[in-house]
Amino acid sequence: MKWHFNFFRFAVMCAAFVALAGFMACSDDDSESGPELVLSASTSSLAGGGSVTFTVAFEDRDVTAEAVIKNVTSGSEVQNATWTTNVAGTYEFQAAYDGMLSNVVSVKVESDSESDAFYRHVLLTKFTATWCGPCAQAQRYFEQLKPEESERFLVVAAHQGDRLTVPVGSALGAKLGYQYVPTWNYDFRTVFESVGTGGITATSIRNQIKSAMEEYPAVCGVKAESELDGQTAKIRATVRFQQAGNYKIACVLTENDIQKTNNETLPVFNHVLRAALTNMEGDPIAPAVAEAGERSFDFEVSLNNGWDSQNCEFVIYVFKEEEDAAFIVNNGAVCPVGGKVDYKYESVE
């Protein structure tokens, strides 16, 4: 019996060793990444639309016919590994095969009605107040603009001496020497005070678009993407520069749809400055831009409990140093909190 017991114990130990060795071998296999499923596209960009052909490879084998390719952006399946569109935008694709997922491939479709010239936005900084009657009249002039005109403007309303005033807004007004409201500043270049002849009128507002596009055409564009993390609003702004030079960037947070109280002059106040994430006259971009290309900038701000994040948006604007050494706003963009905005280009007539 003793011999049988020892033999049994020996057999159990051998089995355990074999099992352990097998486990260790499996663990070693798991520590190494296996073969990858690779999705590739015939092109990464389309001008004016067209077709893209996809290929799926696994272990150097073409498995396109057996794989499922999905347009992640729309949620639809790509048929016969070929996708066709004429709708501008950026689309993402991914393939699935034998329980595996591939890399994500992006395809950008650009409208053939666009040029390579960035859409020129004009920064309008309003120095205003809720109690100011002429400010309400100035706003009515702005509302007389056609949509294609008013959309040119990035608006920041820096309130002075009222319940919507923030220190950074009143400090900017004091630094610039403004003593009255309304005072409207365009691109930190031209200033109009009061309403009527020689001041703020629908015509003078329109003229700012024309002069900005003729004297300081856009040589940069801005795209941005924002997220809301609890009470912290974050944004990554990417600037594409078409010219070398000295630039500055600014980012502020504004809020829309603030309802009037008591006898205030307008039923709703929009584009109200809530916070500045940089100097409102811009922070220098360093090092200076030596060649065409992109740079990204990250900003964040804690939202006050009294602000409605759904009505808040970031205004990003970029200054360029001109020949007279003055920094003029060259372009910018507005991005909702939790949203995103892409580069915008001028349409070809």
UniProtKB/TrEMBL annotation:
Record-linked Pfam families: Omp28 (PF11551)
Regions crossing the membrane: none
PROSITE patterns in the record: PROKAR_LIPOPROTEIN, THIOREDOXIN_2
SUPFAM superfamilies (alphabetical): Thioredoxin-like (SSF52833)
Start and end residues of each Thioredoxin domain: 72-214
Signal peptide per UniProt: 1-21
Name used for this protein in its record: Thioredoxin domain-containing protein
Keyword Transcription regulation: no
Recorded coiled-coil stretches: none
UniProt KW Transmembrane keyword: no
Keywords in alphabetical order: Signal
InterPro entries in UniProt: Ig-like_fold (IPR013783), Omp28 (IPR021615), Thioredoxin-like_sf (IPR036249), Thioredoxin_domain (IPR013766)
